Amino acid sequence: MFIQSKHIFLRALEKADADLLYNIENNQSVWQISNTLTPISKDVLLHYLESAYQDIYTTKQLRLMICKFETNEIIGTIDLFDFEPLHQRMGLGVLIFEEFRQNGFAFESIELIKEYAFKTLLLNQLYCNIGALNISSQLLFKKCGFTEIGVKKQWNKISSTEFEDEILFQCFH
């Protein structure tokens, strides 16, 4: 464990995570958030896990499992993506499984990954994109020091006839 706090730790992906990740990636209820339209095969996922050890400068991303410190139970994932070394920025996304929400785990995870991003990766900024209807995530990221800096109008299609604005947040070192 290289990133930990009192209640949780963030760890690298392991082959044993394949089934759980398969379920996450194929859960249509989170596809809208991740801009996914098609299922992912277990073969593709296993290939991803085999290359997850590669350097962040090669893959431009990092996914970590969020685990409860006392039980080692996986309670979610946190992702850094779209790494831009020249501009020292990355996107950030967090998913806490429904049964573990409202316990402060997302806040704690974001605070841990911010410290890693700013002190280890030497990033200047993290950013995230949140749907305008996702008020709880907006409040969470604001609590974590992110500032709303803009709105992309009618950015995401949420039904056959409706679109949702997307709000861009940034956090600087």
Class from secondary-structure proportions: alpha+beta
How far is the N terminus from the C terminus?
Answer: 24 Å
Q: Return Rg in Å.
A: 16 Å
Mean pLDDT: 88
Count, helices: 6
How many structural domains in the coordinates? 1
Q: What's the CATH superfamily, by name?
A: Gcn5-related N-acetyltransferase (GNAT)
Unreliable stretches covering 5 or more consecutive residues? none
Global shape: globular
Features:
173 residues, alpha+beta, 6 helices, 8 strands, 29% helix, globular
What does this structure look like?
It contains six helices and eight strands. It has about 170 residues and is an alpha+beta fold. It has a single domain (about 5-125), classed as Aminopeptidase (3-Layer(aba) Sandwich), CATH 3.40.630.30. It has an eight-stranded mixed beta sheet with strand order 1-2-3-4-5-6-8-7. The two termini are about 25 Å apart.
Itemize the secondary structure elements and their pairings.
Layout: E1 3-4, E2 8-11, H1 18-25, H2 31-34, H3 42-51, H4 56-59, E3 62-68, E4 74-84, E5 89-96, H5 105-119, E6 125-131, H6 135-143, E7 147-157, E8 163-172
Parallel strand pairs: 5-6
Antiparallel strand pairs: 1-2, 2-3, 3-4, 4-5, 6-8, 7-8
Short account of what is shown:
With 173 residues, the protein is α+β, with helices and mostly antiparallel strands. Helix content is 29%, strand content 35%.
